[in-house]
Amino acid sequence: EAAWLLSNITAGNQQQVQAVIDAQLIPDVIHHLQHGEIQTQKEASWCISNLTMNGSVQQIQYIVNLHVIPPLCNLLQQQDAQLLQVCLDALHNILKQTPEENLEEVTMKIEECGGLDKIENLQTYSNNEIYQQSYEIIEKYFTNENDCHDHDDDISYMSQVPNQDVFPFGNNSANQTVPDNNFNQNNLHFQF
To answer: Which InterPro entries match (predicted)?
Structure first.
C-alpha cells in the first residue's frame, strides 16, 4: 500500500517527485522492486514508471544512479502483461530522457544485467503493445549502437545521425504525446 501511495505521488509534478526523493524513499522502492512480493513489485514498478514519465532529467539520473535498471530488467521475465508494459515504459522513458553523452552508459547497464536479451525476447510476446515497445527500444537505442562499433570512421557519422533523428522526437512531439497517453493510463490505475 505504501508503494501504491508513492506511485500516486510520483504521478504528479516534478516538485512532488522531488518530495519523494528528498524523503529518501526511492531506495526502499527500488529494494521492493527487486525483492518484494509480486504485488509489491507491481506497485513499485508503477512508482518508478511514473517517476520516469514525470520527473526531470536529474531526477531520472538519480534513480539510474541508485541501480534501478537491473530490477526493472529482472521483471521483464514475468508473464503479467501489465507489469511488462509498465517496466518497458520505465526503461523507454529512462532512455528517452538520458542526455546523449550518458546514453551509452545506460544502454550498457541494460545489456550487462541481461535486459537487452529480455527485451529482445519480448518481441515475440503475443501482446501487440509489448511487442511494439520492445521493438522500438531495440531499434532506437541498440541497433545503431551495434553498427557503430564496427568501423571507427562510422562512429562520428552514426553519432550525428541519431542526434538529428532522436532529438526532435525526444523533445517535441513524441515525448509530449507518449507520456500524456501513459499518464492517462496511470490515472486509471490510481482511481480504484
So the answer is: ARM-like, ARM-type_fold, Arm_3, Armadillo
Please write the tens of the pLDDT for every residue from 149-158: 333 333 333 3
Alpha-carbon dihedral 174, 130, 39, 45, rounded to 10 degrees: -30
Query: Residue ranges of the domains in the chain?
Result: 1-143
| Separation of alpha carbons 12 and 15, rounded Å | 8
- pLDDT digit string (tens) for 3-42? 999 999 999 999 999 999 999 999 999 999 999 999 999 9
Distances (CA, A) of 169 to 3, 84, 112, 115: 31, 23, 27, 24
Topology of the domain comprising 1-143: Leucine-rich Repeat Variant (1.25.10)
Give Cα separations from 143 to 4, 78, 96 (angstroms): 35, 25, 15
Largest CA distance in the chain: 55
Whether 177 shows a pLDDT value over 60: the answer reads no
Strands (E), 34-183: none
